[in-house]
Amino acid sequence: FLIAIPATHAAASYQRIQTWTSFESILLSAEHSHPESLRVHGELAIYYYTRRGFDQAVSHLDRVQELDPSSASSVALHRIIAYCLCQKDIPDAEYARLQASLYAGRVKFLIPGVRQMLGVVRRNQCPQLKVDYLSAIFGPWLHAHQPQTGNNAQGDILWWLLNIQLAQLLEYSGRYSQAIPYLDRAAALYPDRLEAGLLKLQYQLRLGDLGGARRTLTDTMQNDRGNRPDYSKALREFEKSLQMPGDGPTPVGPLVLPGT
């Protein structure tokens, strides 16, 4: 009897290994064991749309929303990503779905989707994406719903991060002037977090707005508490660059920001 226990365990383990011959098999096995798991259906949706399995991806996204209606905004965003990666034209109805769902969803579910969208745009995998349309959807919603100042609650940090991510989404598509209002909203939430000011400096320099860049530099340096030596160094480099005579300053290299 004692010998049979490890033998039985080994047989069961071998069966699982045979079942898990691929990542897809692992996820499908997890779905079979946990048919109402949001995470499993979400992972399956991402697995399929990154492999151009559009219909399978949408089926699992629909299941996520059925299980948790508050995930509607995240589902809507991932549906657009599915169209992107499966090289399909994005119907206007999908943008309308996203716009309507924002007012019923929760911010925390949006963050991973926006991060994924950032990667798609950065890699130029979605030329059919209407970035201006996305900005027109997110901008008014953020203006109307985000808190005016941060109080270090996790929810406020998520609003801050969402603004940073959306600014970078616009940056990657060359829309620097459209990105700046998102950075202003992020800076208003947490002035002592310097990421928004540093990105705004980069965008203003690319736009040739030297006066605006100098004002942003002054404000950002006043909020520098020395918590990030790399950011303090970047501000000093901006300061030197803005003092240089000639055709104008050279933008400081790209920053590595959290959540991107």
Low-pLDDT stretches? 1-20
Kindly report how far apart the N and C termini lie.
54 Å
Structural class: mainly alpha
Give the rounded overall mean pLDDT.
Answer: 85
The total count of helices amounts to: 13
> What is the percent of helical residues?
over 70%
What integer value in Å does the Rg equal? 23 Å
Largest sheet: none
**Approximately what portion of the residues adopt beta-strand conformation?**
under 5%
Number of strands: 0
What is the molecular shape?
elongated
Could you name the key traits of this structure?
260 residues; mainly alpha; 0% strand; disordered N terminus
Structure description:
This protein is mostly helical. Helix content is 70%, strand content 0%. It is built from 13 helices and no strands. It has helices at 4-19, 23-33, 38-49, 54-67, 72-85, 92-102, 107-122, 131-145, 154-172, 176-189, 195-207, 210-222, 229-243. It is elongated and about 60 Å long. The N and C termini lie far apart (54 Å).
